[in-house]
């Protein structure tokens, strides 16, 4: 077990708007069936679309699982590709969550940096997966939307010192099936772990100034 890579894959539970079926959760369940290989320990969990739940659950999950990498997955009605988010943002949270709550400070962490970058170069991951012939298009974004996706990502990046990622997937059938999304998530995560392995020992600046 000491030699196993630990990966914590979390998915946002998003039952709002037009999303009758949560593509992110369905895709992650399919990913769990596929697995990531015998030497990678994959842990899957749901996180409610609630600011206070994020603040309560993420610290304990990071502490209990001791993951090498945390990958969050959420659905975006605006996405037509599997979208890799490069960074999380601290401020600008104005929308109410599923409990009709919004932080009074409108931020994730009072006094925290405005933006935290993942230690993973998402452009490199994107290029590698797109050139692999997978049949699912991958793109990169630097704006996760200033709602629970962004809020969760920033919190995780802060707790993990940048060892986190967020992947937005499109709704099911627009244009990809759950199985296609799962294969894309698998390819993306394996590339992320590969990059992290080759960058071990290097110093990363994860906080934008």
UniProtKB/TrEMBL annotation:
A molecular-function term among this protein's GO annotations: pyroglutamyl-peptidase activity
Localisation: Cytoplasm
- Please verify whether the record's keywords include Cytoplasm: yes
Q: Which keywords does UniProt give here?
A: Cytoplasm, Hydrolase, Protease, Thiol protease
Matching InterPro entries: Peptidase_C15 (IPR000816), Peptidase_C15-like (IPR016125), Peptidase_C15-like_sf (IPR036440), PGPEP1_Cys_AS (IPR033694)
- Catalytic residues, per the record, are 149
One biological process GO term for this chain?
A: proteolysis
- First-listed, main subcellular location of the protein, grouped into a coarse class: cytoplasm
Under Enzyme Commission nomenclature, its number is 3.4.19.3
Q: Name one GO cellular component term.
A: cytosol
Reactions catalysed, as given in the entry = Release of an N-terminal pyroglutamyl group from a polypeptide, the second amino acid generally not being Pro
Task: Please name the top-level EC class of this enzyme.
Answer: hydrolase
Check the record and name the Pfam families matching this protein: Peptidase_C15
Q: What does this protein do?
A: Removes 5-oxoproline from various penultimate amino acid residues except L-proline.
Per the record, the similarity remark reads: Belongs to the peptidase C15 family.
Cite the record's note on assembly.
Monomer.
Q: What is this protein called?
A: Pyroglutamyl-peptidase I
Q: Which organism is it from?
A: Cyprinus carpio
């Amino acid at each position: 077990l000491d030699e196993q890579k630990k990966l914590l894959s979390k998915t946002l539970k998003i039952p709002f708007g037009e999303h009758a079926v949560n593509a992110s959760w369905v895709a992650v369940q399919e990913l769990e069936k596929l697995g990531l290989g015998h030497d990678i320990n994959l842990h899957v969990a749901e996180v409610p679309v609630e600011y206070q739940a994020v603040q309560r659950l993420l610290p304990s999950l990071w502490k209990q699982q001791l993951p090498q990498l945390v990958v969050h997955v959420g659905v975006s009605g605006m996405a037509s590709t599997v979208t890799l988010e490069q960074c999380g943002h601290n401020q600008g949270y104005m929308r109410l969550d599923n409990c009709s709550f919004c932080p009074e400070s409108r931020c994730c962490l009072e006094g925290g940096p405005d933006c935290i970058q993942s230690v993973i170069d998402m452009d490199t991951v994107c290029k590698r997966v797109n050139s692999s012939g997978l049949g699912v298009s991958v793109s990169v974004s630097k704006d996760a939307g200033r709602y629970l996706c962004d809020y969760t990502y920033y919190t995780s990046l802060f707790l993990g010192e940048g060892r986190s990622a967020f992947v937005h997937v499109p709704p099911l059938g627009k244009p990809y099936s759950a199985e296609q999304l799962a294969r894309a998530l698998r390819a993306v995560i394996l590339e992320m772990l590969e990059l992290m392995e080759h960058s071990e020992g290097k110093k990363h600046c994860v906080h934008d100034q």
